[in-house]
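fyi for ur records
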Amino acid sequence: MQCFCHKAVFDVKTGRMLEPPFVAPNAMMDKMGKKTFAVRENEGFIEVDLEQSGN
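which gave:
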């Protein structure tokens, strides 16, 4: 997934940063990931487990 504003790129499954934002090209990518959460479909609804973060 890519940030619309800063163009940083993240792995949608792990939250790991793959490309730094253009405003900080030397960013420490291993320290700037996004939280991930367990997601499932249940009878047409999307459920997100906010208590169990992958990061």
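Residues 2 and 27 are 16 Å apart (CA to CA). thats all i got for now
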